[in-house]
């Protein structure tokens, strides 16, 4: 028994499996309240069939994904001991080992590679009581390996941190690496890049549906800026709104029954409300000049939008009950408001004077409190919130081309999302 354990441990450390990525932890500071990280033991993920090298490699890959997810979440203090026999045994002795190095919970899993499909059985134990807190089985085709690991991370974060997890979320964006702007999607960690369009024209401004099953975007495929729909479940792309002039998606209402959007209908662009069930349009604003970029508040009672009625574009709030709008910014230029999931902040791109670069700001819905999140680093635009409200993705020109970066909601830990040729535009972060 001891000999077999030593052989298995040596296999787990084989350099031929995959090299572990180097993680850099940056502490969360600023407006968010401090919290004590949860100490968890992350054991090696084991091959379901001990003699299978393929099982071993897939277990290694999935553990690395889960490990990165947990580190990114900032909720956990991860305890590891690669050479310990406790990595491969579930027993009172192994629980005692993990407790002694400061862990409160144990995360472990077994994985198998069956050729066309993989399986993962993940578990969480309370090290004090020895009770199993969670056991989940995941299975999918090979292309869904990262999705399965992210799904296990979601369960861990939700169970132990009692928090929303974004490990399974994705970011849609436009990119011109092919010579034309096409629509792409990538996992929140910059992996698993997928291109949806290939029509050799201009496709831009993707927006997720409220349930994350569809993406809406504007395309010049038929020579007019029409709105298209990508149905991720059915694997289809089709026109959705195609009036003459601009057809630009805004945001779904929280229940998905309505969508606000920007339409021109041959006139100045303005904000319209689409009733999805009846497919009826209603113009919301009648005296606001050129208006665009509408986004719903999380409670569905208001929208934020951009209008140039005062001269330069500014951020306004429209309330459905009163049918009134109020201005909340007084900058030289403002654009692309995005409401945080909790409703307390609105992120936007702006500049206070004409000489400044564009930067990302956040404001409360009254406009009385504002924070600048980026500065002295190119133009920064198109903010979009993660589903838990703790991170913001945005575009920046700080490295000589337009790229997508991610930062904590207090402006810290700014880093690129994905390495891709060309310029990237208008990211939109999916819901959970």
Helix content: 10-25%
Number of domains: 2
**What radius of gyration results from the CA coordinates?**
24 Å
Mean pLDDT equals 91
Alpha-beta content class? mainly beta
Shape: elongated
Low-pLDDT stretches are 1-33
- From the 3D structure, determine the CATH topology of the largest domain: Neuraminidase
Number of strands: 30
Q: What is the CATH class of the largest domain?
A: Mainly Beta
Straight-line N-to-C gap: 44 Å
Summarize the structure.
The chain has 432 residues and is mainly beta.
List keywords for this structure.
single chain, 432 residues, mainly beta, Rossmann fold, Neuraminidase, 6-stranded mixed β-sheet, 4-stranded antiparallel β-sheet, 13% helix, elongated, disordered N terminus
What does this structure look like?
This protein is mainly beta and 432 residues long. The protein folds into two domains: 2-160, Rossmann fold; 170-429, Neuraminidase, CATH 2.120.10. Helix content is 13%, strand content 39%. Strands 1, 2, 3, 4, 5 and 6 form a six-stranded mixed sheet that branches. Strand 19 and strand 20 form a beta hairpin. The two termini are 44 Å apart.
Itemize the secondary structure elements and their pairings.
Blueprint: H1 2-12, E1 38-42, E2 46-47, H2 53-73, E3 76-79, H3 92-100, E4 105-113, E5 117-126, E6 132-141, H4 145-160, E7 170-175, E8 182-187, E9 194-195, E10 203-208, E11 214-219, E12 226-231, E13 236-241, E14 247-252, E15 258-263, E16 270-275, E17 280-283, E18 291-296, E19 302-307, E20 314-319, E21 324-327, E22 333-339, E23 346-351, E24 359-363, E25 370-372, E26 380-385, E27 391-396, E28 403-408, E29 415-416, E30 424-429
Parallel strand pairs: 1-3, 1-4, 2-4
Antiparallel strand pairs: 4-5, 5-6, 7-8, 7-30, 8-9, 10-11, 11-12, 12-13, 14-15, 15-16, 16-17, 18-19, 19-20, 20-21, 22-23, 23-24, 24-25, 26-27, 27-28, 28-29
Helix pairs in contact: 2-4
């Amino acid at each position: 028994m001891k000999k077999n354990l030593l052989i298995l441990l040596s296999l787990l450390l084989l350099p031929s499996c995959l090299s572990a990525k180097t993680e850099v932890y940056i502490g969360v500071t600023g407006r968010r309240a401090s919290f004590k990280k949860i100490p968890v033991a992350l054991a090696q993920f084991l091959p379901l069939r001990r003699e299978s090298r393929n099982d071993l490699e897939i277990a290694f890959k999935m553990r690395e994904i889960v490990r990165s997810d947990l580190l990114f979440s900032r909720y956990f203090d991860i305890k590891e001991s690669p050479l310990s026999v406790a990595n491969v045994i579930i027993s009172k002795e192994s629980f005692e080992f993990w407790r002694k190095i400061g862990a409160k919970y144990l995360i472990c899993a077994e994985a198998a590679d069956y050729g066309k499909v993989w399986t993962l059985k993940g578990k969480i134990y309370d090290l004090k009581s020895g009770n199993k807190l969670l056991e989940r089985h995941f299975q999918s085709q090979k292309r869904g390996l990262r999705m399965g690991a992210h799904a296990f991370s979601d369960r861990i974060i939700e169970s132990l941190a009692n928090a929303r997890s974004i490990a399974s979320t994705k970011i849609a964006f436009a990119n011109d690496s092919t010579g034309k702007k096409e629509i792409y999607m990538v996992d929140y960690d910059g992996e698993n890049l997928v291109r949806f369009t290939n029509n050799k024209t201009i496709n831009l401004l993707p927006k997720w549906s409220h349930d994350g099953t569809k993406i809406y975007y504007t395309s010049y495929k038929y020579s007019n800026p029409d709105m298209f729909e990508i149905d991720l479940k059915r694997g289809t792309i089709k026109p959705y709104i195609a009036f003459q002039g601009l057809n630009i998606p805004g945001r779904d209402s929280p229940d998905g029954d309505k969508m606000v959007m920007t339409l021109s209908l041959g006139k100045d662009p303005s904000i319209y409300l689409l009733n999805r069930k009846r497919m009826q349009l209603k113009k919301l604003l009648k005296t606001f000049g050129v208006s665009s970029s509408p986004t719903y508040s999380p409670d569905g009672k208001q929208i934020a939008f951009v209008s140039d009625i005062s001269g330069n574009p500014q951020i306004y709030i429209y309330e459905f009950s009163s049918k009134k709008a109020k201005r909340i910014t007084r900058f030289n230029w403002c654009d692309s408001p995005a409401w945080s999931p909790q409703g307390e902040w609105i992120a936007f791109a702006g500049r206070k004077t004409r000489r400044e670069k564009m930067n990302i700001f956040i404001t409360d819905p009254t406009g009385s409190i504002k924070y600048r999140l980026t500065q002295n680093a190119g133009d920064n635009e198109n903010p979009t919130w993660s589903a838990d409200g703790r991170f913001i993705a945005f575009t920046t020109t700080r490295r000589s081309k337009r790229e997508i970066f991610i930062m904590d909601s207090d402006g810290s830990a700014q880093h690129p999302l994905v390495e891709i040729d060309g310029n990237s535009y208008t990211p939109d972060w999916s819901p959970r």
